[in-house]
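User: Please predict the structure of the protein below. I'd like the answer in structure-token form so I can feed it into my own downstream comparison script.

Assistant: Understood. Taking the following sequence of 418 residues as input:
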Amino acid sequence: MMEGRDLAWDRISGLPDPLLTHILSFLPIEEAVRTCILSKRWVKVWVSLPVLVFDNRKCKQDNLTKEEFQKREEKYLRFFCSVILNRENLTLDTFKLTWWGSNVRDTLLHIFKYFCCAVECRPRILSIHIDIDTKTLPGLTDSIFKCTSVEEMSLWLEIDYLLYEDSFIKPKPFNLPFLQKLELYYLNLNNDIMRMFISGCPVIEELVLLKCVLEWCMISFKVLKKLVLKYCHHCGPMEISCPRVVSLSIESINTEGITLKNMSSLVTADILCAPVFSSLATVDHLKLRLLGGLSNVTSLKLYSGCPYVMYLLRADIPNCPTLKNLQSLDLGEIKINCNWNWVACLLKHSSNLKDLTLHFFRPGKDAAKEEFQGDISFQNEYLEAVKINCPGKNVKLAGELIRTSGTLVETTAKIIIL
């Protein structure tokens, strides 16, 4: 009779190759490759792994000298090349490559060569994260944007000089017919590049731009459903026109203005504005035209990065439509002694609102107190909760805010201090 350990071993070895490779795909690539020493049965199992993830940061350890790190990196590079070479042209599902801190030309040439081999394996998910100190990236972007099989792509090129080049990405026209999700980080994107994206990505549904330099004035995609812009820089006014976008997130974009147009499908909006200006005297030429594009949202978070943004939001009040579908509204940061008319305007246009959250901050001692102007109170029969976030959770201050909000909103909704 076979011992229990041998029986368990035989059961695993007897599984078909597709199931074994699926199990191995959950292991780090280094451990998956090591299974080749188990027996002849396992020698080639790892070769058809559908997921390959490489990260040279594993080479870094505390107290390593420069020479020791280079040796570890060279060893990892040989491992990377060997894995790609042994796979031949077997189809990949996912390929992820992270390579930090290398400025050796030969290393980069090897990475590029075998990266091209991986692209020829037609991955469905492609992720490239490179942080290096050299401009030697020969033809990398051409290979990336010709990967016709890819459905999800993340491109992170954290290289300082990218922010100052006229245009780093200079590939030939894109050909990404199945791409649905695209994430770009630390890239300089001009009008020509964006036109290539629009024409070369006909079915793209999700676009994420983080810390990119944007040199075009209009973001316009006909089929896009989700748009995320975070910590990007754009000199000049920006217009967003995406009729099928249902989710929009804008956070800390340095720009001279944002206009939302043709956003009738928008359901969820999370907007934190931070336009480029230094004082109230310089904002007259800046425009925030946001409210006109929010007519069908059900959930809205609207935050200002500085007091001057509130000035621009108030100027946008005449463009505020009836927010008939809005059920959740989160506003901040609001000066405790501010004129609440712009807040009241939003609330009056939100007759079906159920959940209201107000975030306050205490202005400086020299800030002038603003008084209510006209009749700004209204009734809301559907409102269930008013949440108030006040500085330092000051109980006395919270009471004042509750009384003020009571003047603003005539409701029996539960008031909660966050």
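That's the full token string. The first strand starts at residue 51 and ends at 55.
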